[in-house]
Each structure stands twice: as C-alpha cells, then as structure tokens.
TrEMBL record:
It is an enzyme of class 3 (hydrolase). It comes from Oricola cellulosilytica. Its main location: cytoplasm. This is Exodeoxyribonuclease 7 small subunit. Bidirectionally degrades single-stranded DNA into large acid-insoluble oligonucleotides, which are then degraded further into small acid-soluble oligonucleotides. Its EC number is 3.1.11.6. One of its GO terms (molecular function) is exodeoxyribonuclease VII activity. It comes from the Bacteria.
Length: 83
C-alpha cells in the first residue's frame, strides 16, 4: 500500500518508534472497541508502519558483515553475512 500524505511522517521514523506505534495499533484492533471508520484508518497507518519497519530491517541486514579469516585464522577483510 502506498503512503498517503497523512502517513508521510512514517518515513521519518526510526525503527523503535514505528514498531511501538504499530504495536499500539494492533492492540486497539485486537480489543475490537474501535469504530469501523477508525479501524480502517488505523489499519492503513499500521500498514505504512509495517512497511517502514520492514524497509529499516532490510537496510540493517544489508549493512551486517562478517569477518573473513585466512587459513591461519587472521582477519582478511569482510564479506556480506549471507555471502
């Protein structure tokens, strides 16, 4: 789902803030005491928050590297973790 203008702030959030807001939305929806119109609106925001968390996690994974060692156990540089 594409971000709508009222969800533009999501793109500026760090992972922890986005995740906390997403958890709050899940709690509200699970309680079931939110009017339908509000449920739809917070679900859409939750989707934007989920997308932001996913993008931040993928970015972090791409930055993680492992140290390559020579046969005698000395560091010889780095390579992608999944490489």
């Amino acid at each position: 789902m594409a971000d709508t203008p009222n969800h533009a702030d999501v793109n500026e959030m760090n992972f922890e803030i986005a995740l906390k807001q997403l958890e709050e939305i899940v709690d509200k929806l699970e309680r079931g005491d939110v009017p339908l119109d509000e449920s739809i609106a917070i679900y859409e925001r939750g989707e934007a928050l989920r997308n932001r968390c996913d993008a931040l996690l993928k970015s972090a994974e791409a930055k993680i590297e492992k140290i390559k060692l020579t046969r005698d156990g000395k560091p010889a540089g780095t390579e992608p973790l999944d490489g």
